[in-house]
Amino acid sequence: MMALETRNLVKRFGGFTATHDVSLSIRQGARHALIGPNGAGKTTLINLFTGVFAPTSGQIFLDGEDITALPAHARVARGLSRTFQINQLFADFTPLDSMMLAIGERKGHGRRFWQPLAADREVAEEAVTTLERFRLADVMSEETRLLPYGKQRLLEIALAIAARPKVLLLDEPAAGVPEEEREEVLGIVRALPEDVTVVLIEHDMDLVFSFADRISVLAAGALFAEGSVEEISRDPQVKAIYLGEDA
Amino acid sequence: MTDHQAHALRLLTAKHRWRVWEIALWLAAIAAIFLLPSQLLILTEIVILALFAVSLDLILGYAGIVSLGHTAFFGLGAYAAGILARDYVAEPVTGLVFAGLVSGLFGLATSFLVLRGSDLTRLMTTFGVAMLLAELGNQAAWLTGGADGLSGISMTPILGLFEFDLWGRNGYIYCLVVLIVLTFVARHITNSPFGLSLMAIKRNPRRAAMLGISPKRRIVTVYAVSAAYAGMAGALLAQTTNFVSPDVLAFHRSADVLLVLVIGGAGYLYGGIFGAIIFTMLRDWLSVATPQYWMFWIGLILVAIVMIGRERLTGWPALLAARLKSRTGEAAR
Amino acid sequence: MLTILFDGIAYGMLLFILACGLSITLGLMNFVNLAHGAFAMAGGYVTVVLMNRYGIPFYLCLPAAFIATAVIGAALEVTLYRRLYRASHLDQVLFSIGLVFMAIAAADYFMGGQQQLINLPPELRGRLDVFGIGIGRSRLFIIVICAILAVALQLALTRTRFGSQLRAAVDDGRVARGLGINVSTIFVLTFALGSGLAGLGGALGADMLGLDPNFPLKFLIYFMIVVTVGGTSSITGPFIAALLLGIADVAGKYYLPQAGAFIIYAVMILVLILRPNGLFTREGGR
Ligand SMILES: Nc1ncnc2c1ncn2[C@@H]1O[C@H](COP(=O)(O)OP(=O)(O)OP(=O)(O)O)[C@@H](O)[C@H]1O
Ligand SMILES: [Mg+2]
Q1: How far is C104 from C116, CA to CA, in rounded Å?
Q2: How far apart are CA A240 and CA A244, in angstroms?
Q3: How far is it, in rounded angstroms, from Cα C154 to Cα C151?
Q4: How far apart are the C-alpha atoms of A165 and A167, rounded to whole Å?
């Protein structure tokens, strides 16, 4: 069964078509890269997967279940999680608070209104372990907005992973991260458990080729090509899109 | 347990530990019974306003819902308590609970109005609901006394034990106890996983949804709780004054309570209390002239607060909290 | 029956002129200006003072009210409003409530709390009998003036350079600036126009709506209804909404004096539930 699948997905903003009839299948446990020039509609596709936007037409399936009409939080509950291209964090929360929230919600403790946070040992312990794994434990009492960008980026990813997703969507996880902190972020991405399906949006081709086992190329909202790393890296048309962009 | 875990637990515990200034505030409020016996009526007024503002803080400060008609719940509670006392049971605590239930249920019933749409729709629906109730209170004169207000209330002793005295001493104690208990409850709620999720929804609804938080239930819950609080504040007013004026549903009350909260700072529960103290003192000081002037000054204060910047003006409690936090944080390390 | 309809139309037209400025600040500039009614009140008082104290004819007072409130509006825009276009809605609400309170207190201080009466010129008093329908002359006058204004406004917003510059400025301030449009001038002018129209409405309606210091709060709900029900994406929406509201309100007060106000508030809430962006907006705009 496919972990994530779309059928004839279309998204229009007014007269502009940002997603053009995309039918995509992503295998369970895949390392799937989504590439394409700026404005190709990659982020829009992720927004459709996660329910930030409703598609104009078409369907989305998670583990074979039609999730097209589900609200965002219900998709998360079914195992879909993401990071944002631009950090979406709680600026004045500490990483500890954010992590308590993320893990507490996954465990369904968010409706407990009479339990002090400190009394939720189970969640606190996991929060700390996760923070340690993401090298955030030393800064867990700082306000998020005061952290270096690389740390914020790590927190963004940590929050997505704290949901223990079956399918994880990473929108340019290393974008904007200074060179010296970059390896830290990428290390985390590479070390994700194998059974988690990962969809990665990334502009850095070296990274894409080393990480992915399958690649989809988007151009002008439409699926332009799809194949293994070899096929895509050899495809002259893909090169043309990218080189045309770069040159 | 690792060092990090111990540190995390200390941080989390510090969140709901009572702070020195909180205890000092409540001790001062209790001391006032003996130190300011001639001021108890105005202190009672402050306590009621404080409770009303705490109730607004629950939705505005924690969940980020701007309401232009919060007095709907306050007024409804006042009428509920007043009518209950006039026609059925005149025991105050019963009336308080009844008013809380009525307003809470009304909050629950109208909460779906604040779930949808933008700030603007929320402003208008809350405003509209308050106007609707005001009109209803005005029309149903057979029940509410209409424009003349609801009179003929005479409360029996609190729990059958403590009679409301002429100096307002027991009235003040009664209101203060209610405020302390309800603030304690609110404090508990806001320090829970539920409270954390509310703050998250307010700060970044998109990320909150991506953590699997369904905002609707949470907002409905806190809205109903807040409405119940406002209703109980209204009940206290009706019970301590033996009168309900149609003014309890007037627009200016919704505006006043916003101002109170803004003066004290939203989002940490005590803003409503500090705001109520400052607001009432200001009003007493300024309205030596006429009520009309007072309205002008309120207006000027509102404009000034916004122009100078709320953050800058009411940053003091946050600054204080931050300083205390960093101190406890260091101590914890 | 037809008289009621006619009065309702006059009332609705008046509401439109009063509220269209709000619909512009709210819809185009995204500013929650609860003080809008204060401008209308100012226009009313300008007329009262000019007529009763200085004996200036009613017809001259109308443009005077427009100009005076437009100037006040422009002055406030430049000094205060301008800084709050990007502020949160809560700040805008607090600020404009503050202005309303100050305006109410000031009106009370200078003019007293009583209802103000104005003496309409004789040709606007009394009724005309057209095919057996009693038509108030002042109502007819209001309808004619407001209809002309509504058409002029629609043309100004859709057909003129000013209108297209305004829309450009609102759509994307930066792009508009890049095109050499002076965005802040456009905003001042728009704000002044909206305030001026409110002032004119206040002057025209002083007789029909009454005028006392509580005017801004009393009619706030009506303005809000016009704007919410009509939506803010065009001025036709508010126009239709104002007409419906005017007719419903007059008819309600006549046939169901007890329930009139409820029905109107309830309808507003209902519309907000069903169509949070207003009844007359096209879906999927952008
Ligand atoms: N909410 C929106 N409203 C209107 N247009 C939008 C919206 N979101 C995206 N678009 C448009 O859709 C197109 C695709 O945008 P998208 O963000 O998906 O591109 P992308 O492939 O992620 O690009 P990048 O590599 O720069 O992140 C762009 O032209 C963008 O302007
Ligand atoms: Mg993108």
Answers
A1: 14
A2: 5
A3: 5
A4: 5
Distance between CA atoms of residues B39 and B37, nearest Å: 6
Residue with token string 């009583």: C114
Q: What pLDDT was estimated at residue B313? A: 64
Residue ranges of the domains in chain A? 2-246
- List the one residue out of C116, C79, C71 whose CA is nearest residue C99: C79
Rounded to whole angstroms, the Cα distance separating C220 from C97 reads 11
Is residue B212 in some structural domain?
Answer: yes
Count of beta carbons in the 10 Å neighbourhood of residue C113: 12
Q: What is the pTM of this model?
A: 0.90
pLDDT tens digit sequence for C47-84: 999 988 888 888 899 999 999 999 999 999 999 998 89
By CB atoms closer than 10 A (0-12, 13-18, 19+), residue B130 is: buried
Domain assignment present for residue B299? The answer is no
Q: Answer whether C66's CB lies under 8 Å from C21's CB.
A: no
The burial class, CB within 10 Å (0-12 / 13-18 / 19+), for C129 is exposed
CA-derived radius of gyration, chain B = 20
Closest to C247 measured CA to CA, from C15, C19, C9:
C9
Q: What is the largest CA-CA distance in chain B?
A: 68
Domain residue spans of chain C: 2-274
Highest mean pLDDT (candidates B173-182, B292-301, C113-122, C237-246)? B173-182
Residue B183 within any structural domain of the chain? yes
Strands A31-35 and A197-201: parallel
**To the nearest whole angstrom, how far is the Cα of C261 from the nearest Cα of chain B?**
7
Question: HEC profile for chain B?
Answer: CCHHHHHHHHHHHHHHCCCHHHHHHHHHHHHHHHHCHHHHHHHHHHHHHHHHHHHHHHHHHHCCCCCCCCHHHHHHHHHHHHHHHHHCCCCHHHHHHHHHHHHHHHHHHHCHHHHCCCHHHHHHHHHHHHHHHHHHHHHCHHHHCHHHCECCCCCCCECCCECCCCCCHHHHHHHHHHHHHHHHHHHHHHCCHHHHHHHHHHHCHHHHHHCCCCHHHHHHHHHHHHHHHHHHHHHHHHHHHCCECHHHHCHHHHHHHHHHHHHHCCCCCCHHHHHHHHHHHHHHHHCCCCHHHHHHHHHHHHHHHHHHCHHHHHHHHHHHHHHHHHHHHHHHC
List chains adjacent to chain C, taking adjacency as at least 3 C-beta pairs closer than 8 Å.
Answer: A, B
Confidence of residue B312 (pLDDT cuts 50, 70, 90): low
- Give the whole-angstrom CA distance, residue C41 versus residue A67: 54
Determine the pLDDT at residue C285.
Answer: 36
How far apart (Å, rounded) are the C-alpha atoms in residues C137 and C127?
5
CB contact under 8 A, B127 and C272: no
Range picked from A115-119, B79-83, B163-167 for highest mean pLDDT: B79-83
> Would you say the CB of residue A47 lies under 6 angstroms from ligand 1?
no
Domain span at residue B77? Answer: 18-250
Residues B51 and B227: beta-carbon distance below 8 Å: no
User: Residue A23 C-alpha to ligand 2 middle, in angstroms?
Assistant: 19
How far off is chain C from B136, nearest CA to CA, in Å? 8
Q: Which residues of B touch C226 (CB under 8 A)?
A: none
Residue B284 lies in a domain: no
Fold (topology level) of A2-246: Rossmann fold (3.40.50)
Residue positions counted in chain A: 247
Neighbouring chains to B with at least 3 Cβ pairs closer than 8 Å: A, C
Radius of gyration over every alpha carbon of chain A, rounded to an integer in angstroms: 18
